[in-house]
């Protein structure tokens, strides 16, 4: 026990005084980084889920040029894609409270006065705007042969949309959506600016409490890199499965030659 204690004390002394990064201090506070990662993942994936569900009907309305909805949805997507996410978050968190009607509404106490809900609403509306536009593009570029085949099979417009157009658009939108997932994850650092203890917020707390320069930021960076790696691998596997039919096939001669070799 004495040897173990001496080694631990030596390791702590080396970490504090000689190592470029105080890894022992980071290890002591690792639980807080996992709690921050949980907040980050909750905000990111809830926003993606709700925003994705919102984007499907809006993308269909945009792709089908619905007379009344199309200009309204265009204005919404333009507003949220044309302004920074930080500004949108501030408007929800700081701006709504300036209106007495909002403060006296039934939504103020349980939702709009809570920074977590304000951030979630801002993230959801932002990612819904981006998802609407690239999903609209995927719907509009659905191969004409698939549409003609579904018409020939006697499918109604709704059945054709549900069984042919949307599944085809979802598959082809996978690469673009993987970028949106990562961008939303990166954008979640804004949550720390409105008092939420997400990953970056924990990093700032660690640096501020112990007067450090970069230990908290480096640890948060490593967590983000690990999460992005998992997201990238998941989407690569999904693309490999659902976009297999779009990959170029080997010609008969190349297949025979490779089999002969």
Automatic annotation (TrEMBL):
It comes from the Bacteria. InterPro entries: AA_ABC_transptr_permease_3TM, ArtM/GltK/GlnP/TcyL/YhdX-like, MetI-like, MetI-like_sf. Residues 37-235 form the ABC transmembrane type-1 domain. The chain crosses the membrane at residues 37-61, 73-96, 212-238. Keywords: Cell inner membrane, Cell membrane, Membrane, Transmembrane, Transmembrane helix, Transport. SUPFAM superfamilies: MetI-like (SSF161098). GO terms for cellular component: ATP-binding cassette (ABC) transporter complex. It is found in: Cell inner membrane; Cell membrane. Belongs to the binding-protein-dependent transport system permease family. HisMQ subfamily. PANTHER family: ARGININE ABC TRANSPORTER PERMEASE PROTEIN ARTM, MEMBRANE COMPONENT OF AMINO ACID ABC TRANSPORTER. This is Arginine/ornithine transport system permease protein.
């Amino acid at each position: 026990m004495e040897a173990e204690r001496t080694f631990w004390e030596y390791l702590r002394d080396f970490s504090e005084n000689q190592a470029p990064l105080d890894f022992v201090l980071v290890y002591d506070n690792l639980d807080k980084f996992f709690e921050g990662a949980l907040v980050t993942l909750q905000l990111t994936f809830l926003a993606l889920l709700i925003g994705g569900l919102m984007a499907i009907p809006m993308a269909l309305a945009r792709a089908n040029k619905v007379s009344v909805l199309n200009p309204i949805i265009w204005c919404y997507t333009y507003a949220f894609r044309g302004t920074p996410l930080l500004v949108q978050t501030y408007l929800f968190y700081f701006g709504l409270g300036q209106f007495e009607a909002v403060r006296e509404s039934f939504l103020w106490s349980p939702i709009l006065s809570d920074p977590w809900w304000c951030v979630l609403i801002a993230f959801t509306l932002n990612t819904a705007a981006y998802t609407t536009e690239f999903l609209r593009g995927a719907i509009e570029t659905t191969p004409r042969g698939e549409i003609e085949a579904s018409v020939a099979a006697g499918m109604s417009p709704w059945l054709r949309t549900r069984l042919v157009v949307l599944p085809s658009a979802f598959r082809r939108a996978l690469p673009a959506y993987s970028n949106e997932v990562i961008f939303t994850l990166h954008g979640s650092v804004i949550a720390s600016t409105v008092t939420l203890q997400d990953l970056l917020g924990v990093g700032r707390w660690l640096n501020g409490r112990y007067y450090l320069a970069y230990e908290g930021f480096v640890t948060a960076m490593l967590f983000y890199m690990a999460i992005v790696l998992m997201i990238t691998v998941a989407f690569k596997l999904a693309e490999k499965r659902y976009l297999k039919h779009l990959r170029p096939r080997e010609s008969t001669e190349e297949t025979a030659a490779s089999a002969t070799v």
